[in-house]
C-alpha cells in the first residue's frame, strides 16, 4: 500500500517534471513560451522566434545566426555569451528524461511492494543524484545565456532542482526505515529461537537447572545455600549431576 512519504516524493517529482516541460517546449516549439525575450526575439531551448516577423528558426541544438538575415544582431544575447555556449541547452531535454524516469520509479514504489525493497530504494537514490545535477546544470546554462532577462520558465528550473533534492532526501529516509524494520524482524526472530516458549519438566535450562527449579526459585535458593554451607555435599552433588 502507498505510504504518505512515497506519495509525497511522487508528487514532488511530478511537479518537477511539469516545470521542466515548460522550458523544453519553449520557442520555437511553442512560440508563446520563452526562456528569454530580448530585442524582439523569444529564445528557447531549440532555437528562437522573431516577434515582429512571426518567424522561427528550425528546431535544432544550438543557435546559429545564418538562418535569417533579420536575426543578425550586434547584441544577440542579453549576456553577450558566445553562440557555442547555446549548445549546452541540450541538457534541458536530458534532465527531463532523467526526472521523468525518477517519477516513474516513485510511482512504482508507491503502488507496488517494491517500495519495501532496499535495493530498489538505493537504486532510486543513485538515480536521483544525476537528475538533481542535470536540473541544476540546466538552470546555470540559462543564467549564463539569458541573465538578466531570464523569464519564468528558466526560474522554474531552480524550483525543480529543489523539489528533486527534497524527494531524494525522502527516498533516503524511506530506505533507512525499511532497513531498520528488517533489522528489528531479524533480531526478534533470533530472540524467539534462543528462548523457547514451551519447556518440559525434565528439560534442562542453561546452567544445568531444570524447568521445575527455574519455576520454583525458593527450592533453587535452598539448594544453593546448602551447597555453600556444606562444601562436601555440594561437591558430591555436582559429581552426581554430571554422572
TrEMBL record:
Region labeled Disordered — which residues?
A: 204-227
Which protein is depicted? LAFE_0H01442g1_1
Which InterPro entries does the UniProt entry name for this protein? pH-response_reg_palI/RIM9, SUR7/Rim9-like_fungi
One matching Pfam family: SUR7
Q: Which keywords belong to this entry?
A: Membrane, Transmembrane, Transmembrane helix
The entry's localization annotation reads: Membrane
Segments spanning the bilayer are 89-109, 121-146, 152-173
Q: Name one GO cellular component term.
A: growing cell tip
Membrane-protein topology: Multi-pass membrane protein
Name the source's superkingdom: Eukaryota
Key word Transmembrane present: yes
Quote the biased-composition stretches of kind Polar residues, using this chain's numbering. Answer: 212-226
Amino acid at each position: 500500500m502507498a505510504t504518505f512519504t512515497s506519495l509525497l516524493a511522487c508528487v514532488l517529482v511530478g511537479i518537477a517534471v511539469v516545470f521542466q516541460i515548460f522550458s523544453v517546449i519553449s520557442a520555437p516549439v511553442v512560440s508563446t513560451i520563452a526562456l528569454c525575450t530580448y530585442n524582439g526575439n523569444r529564445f528557447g531551448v531549440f532555437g528562437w522566434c522573431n516577434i515582429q516577423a512571426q518567424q522561427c528558426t528550425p528546431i535544432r541544438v544550438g543557435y546559429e545566426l545564418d538562418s535569417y538575415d533579420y536575426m543578425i544582431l550586434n547584441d544577440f544575447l542579453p549576456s553577450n555569451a558566445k553562440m557555442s555556449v547555446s549548445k549546452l541547452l541540450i541538457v534541458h531535454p536530458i534532465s527531463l528524461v532523467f526526472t521523468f524516469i525518477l517519477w516513474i520509479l516513485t510511482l512504482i514504489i508507491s503502488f507496488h511492494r517494491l517500495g519495501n525493497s532496499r535495493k530498489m530504494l538505493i537504486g532510486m537514490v543513485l538515480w536521483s543524484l544525476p537528475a538533481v545535477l542535470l536540473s541544476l546544470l540546466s538552470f546555470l546554462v540559462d543564467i549564463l545565456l539569458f541573465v538578466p532577462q531570464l523569464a519564468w520558465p528558466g526560474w522554474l528550473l531552480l524550483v525543480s532542482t529543489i523539489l528533486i533534492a527534497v524527494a531524494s532526501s525522502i527516498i533516503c529516509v524511506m530506505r533507512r526505515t525499511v532497513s531498520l524494520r528488517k533489522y528489528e524482524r531479524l533480531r526478534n526472530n533470533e530472540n524467539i529461537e534462543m528462548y523457547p516458549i514451551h519447556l518440559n519438566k525434565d528439560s534442562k535450562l542453561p546452567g544445568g537447572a531444570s524447568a521445575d527449579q527455574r519455576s520454583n526459585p525458593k527450592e533453587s535458593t535452598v539448594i544453593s545455600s546448602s551447597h555453600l554451607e556444606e562444601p562436601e555435599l555440594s561437591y558430591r552433588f555436582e559429581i552426581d549431576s554430571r554422572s
